[in-house]
Amino acid sequence: MPSHTFIVNGQSVTVDAPDDLPLLWVLRDMLGVRGPKYGCGVDVCKACTSHLDGVDVRPCVVPVSACAGRTVTTIEGLADGEVLHPVQEAWLEQDVAQCGFCQPGQIMAAVALLKRTSTPTDEDIDAIANICRCGTYFRIREAIRSAAAKMAALNI
User: Fold this and answer.
1) N or C terminus of the chain with fewer C-beta within 10 Å?
2) If you write DSSP's letter for every residue of 86-120 in order, what string do you get?
């Protein structure tokens, strides 16, 4: 079985897994990282959104072989110790979560969006297209705007 070495949330890991095994299953089943959720398995719902070298990806469709020597960040690696990321803070302040299932993916997509643009439009926010069955889209939009303002004030 091939070995794959990469970084997950700041820690180097090596896993023995088939090259085509989706990263989501490596994270959840082999490494115990539970933040990215399995929703659809085909890059539609985006509940598993994580970052690969700082870019948002869906680990349900990324083979573990694509991660060799790279850095994976999930919701568990977003905060700096006890200090939440501004997007996480905004999520709490705007009371976004209801059931919470999609929230890790939503937050990771929002962080990636705010890396691309510091002043996202409604169209930019809608384009992240993470599915939320609870329908908290208005609060998601407000949280992203709030986080954008915080990040601008902190020069992040």
Assistant:
1) N
2) HHHHHHHHTT--SS-SSHHHHHHHHHHHHHH-SS-
